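Hi support team,

I've been running sequence recovery on a batch of backbones for a student project. Most finish fine, but this one hangs at about 90% for roughly twenty minutes before it completes. I'm not sure whether the input is malformed or the queue is just slow. I've pasted the structure tokens below so you can try to reproduce it. Let me know if you need the job ID as well.

Thanks,
M.K.
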């Protein structure tokens, strides 16, 4: 009897040891599979997973794919666009460590109650991780990799570089990647020369530039662009006059006051008129 119990304990211990070993191996393999992001600190990526996916999709449809992608340092990207993208996509960007756990919790609660998986809570670092390295699928393992890569990007590269990466790899149309190509495509100017309204419209197009590009006429997108411009004003990025101009450009502000010409001075009566 005692010998049987001992054998059962030995089998249980062996199974537990094997299970623990498998877990350790799986964790180690997962960790080793994460990309080394340190080269991105000094050099831009040569391509991204999203670019390669679009190339593959075009080939499968027997369509030509033309890539428009011009890397620009952060100093040559409009501060209006920088502010608008952060405000629109990740308003706690400068506070969290690559992952906004509170936003993820709220999104999970919403999806649980609504029985959907619609609401996202991806930070800018997570979107960089996804666009650079991962597929757009909702596979739980892929999502877990995204979280770890995002933390690694934030920790090893720092906030300014993560933002620079995002602004340079974000998709803004068919074959259009990065702020410079987007500015040229939609407004015919450089990313450095964007106006507040142009920057707000580009930011409002994310993260789905095919349904929400600047050519789309939509009240929802107009309201979002207006909120982004209002955020620029509140942060002191644009002054009152520029804010009013932006509102008029968006069609939501009062019309500009046109100064009416003053009436000519009445002529002095001549002496002959008094006679």
């Amino acid at each position: 009897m005692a010998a049987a119990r001992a054998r059962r304990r030995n089998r249980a211990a062996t199974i537990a040891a094997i299970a623990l070993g498998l877990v350790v191996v799986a964790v180690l393999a997962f960790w080793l599979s994460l990309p080394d992001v340190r080269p991105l600190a000094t050099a831009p990526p040569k391509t991204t997973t999203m670019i390669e996916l679009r190339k593959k999709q075009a080939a499968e449809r027997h369509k030509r794919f033309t890539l428009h992608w011009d890397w620009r340092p952060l100093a040559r990207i409009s501060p209006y666009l920088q502010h608008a993208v952060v405000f629109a996509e990740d308003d706690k960007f400068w506070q969290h460590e690559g992952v906004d756990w509170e936003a993820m919790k709220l999104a999970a609660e919403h999806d649980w109650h609504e029985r959907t998986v619609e609401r996202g809570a991806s930070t800018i670092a997570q979107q960089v991780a996804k666009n650079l390295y991962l597929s757009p699928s909702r596979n739980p393992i892929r999502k877990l990799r995204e979280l770890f890569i995002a933390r690694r990007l934030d920790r090893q590269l720092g906030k300014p570089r993560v933002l620079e990466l995002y602004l340079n790899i974000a998709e803004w149309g068919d074959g259009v990647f990065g702020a410079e190509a987007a500015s040229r495509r939609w407004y015919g100017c450089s990313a450095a020369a964007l106006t507040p309204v142009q920057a707000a419209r580009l930011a409002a197009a994310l993260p789905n530039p095919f349904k929400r590009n600047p050519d789309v006429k939509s009240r929802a997108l107009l309201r979002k662009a207006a909120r982004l411009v209002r955020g620029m004003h509140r942060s002191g990025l644009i002054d009152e006059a520029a804010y009013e101009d932006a509102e008029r450009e968006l069609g939501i502000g009062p019309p500009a006051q046109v100064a009416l010409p003053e009436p000519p001075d009445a002529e002095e009566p001549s002496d002959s008129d008094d006679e």
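--
Follow-up from support: It reproduced on our side and the slowdown came from queue contention, not your input. The chain has one domain: 14-253. No action needed from you.
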